[in-house]
Amino acid sequence: MATPHRAVTPLALTGERTSPGIGHENYWFRRHEAVYAAVPGWVAGPPSWVLDAGSGEGYGAAGLAHALAGCLVLGVDYDADAAAHARRAHGGGRVAYLRGALTALPLPAAGVDLVVSLQVLEHIWTPDEMVRELVRVLAPGGTLVISTPNRLTFSPGLGRREQPANAYHCREYDAEELAAELARWAPGLHVSPLLGVGHGPRLRAWEAAHGSVVAAQQAATPEHWAPTLARVVEAVRADDFELGPAADDCLDLVVVAHLPG
Description:
- The longest helix is centred in the first third of the chain and has 13 residues, at 26-38.
- By secondary structure, the protein is of the alpha/beta class.
- Residues 1-14 have low confidence and may be disordered.
- The chain has helices at residues 26-38, 59-67, 80-90, 127-137, 151-154, 175-185, 201-210, 213-218, 227-235; strands at 49-53, 72-77, 95-99, 112-118, 138-149, 190-191, 195-199, 241-245, 252-258.
- Helix content is 32%, strand content 21%.
- Strands 1, 2, 3, 4, 5, 6, 7, 8 and 9 form a nine-stranded mixed β-sheet that branches.
């Protein structure tokens, strides 16, 4: 669902909640999908139980069930309507959805092999409680994957702990800050060097000719986009994004961590 961002326009897009198949939201959907697609490569062995914490529309949990053969996936979201939609659209088989608070998960301790929470941390008023809950339900030897916007590119000029202009965000992070907070919130977790999401060659080439694709989307409502912008947004694929070491100019930050066995 499109949401307001700053004071540019009341209908500018930020990808707070996106769905597949909506042309003008496709850039944000694919940017989110790119991290989901990378998750299987970060798991040492096939997980039996997977938690998608903050599962939203539900497509990510369903995708994980498809990519990780044999696992059972549970999507949890605090929004009752989102959880109900996810059950209708993607539930069944090896995927289930329920409503629950991420700071008080309705799950026993140490029972989940893989916990994924993408583009959620920035929405939580008590992120330390959320991270501790994700670690609590993680089994020894399990993997935790978290993604969140890079404050330096999502909200340039915003300082640490300053209130984000995006009304849906409680707090945004830079890489150094996020790594330090994770060490404080969950000292037993082994966090690999943070990764960053960036544009691949096709989007970089477009930006070299036309400027920032994100800024262009936020500068006007979709019905007023230039044709070249509308075409590139609708054509974006998950593989138009690259993951590499976190840098100041990356779009999103990605945490891959493991709980010692």
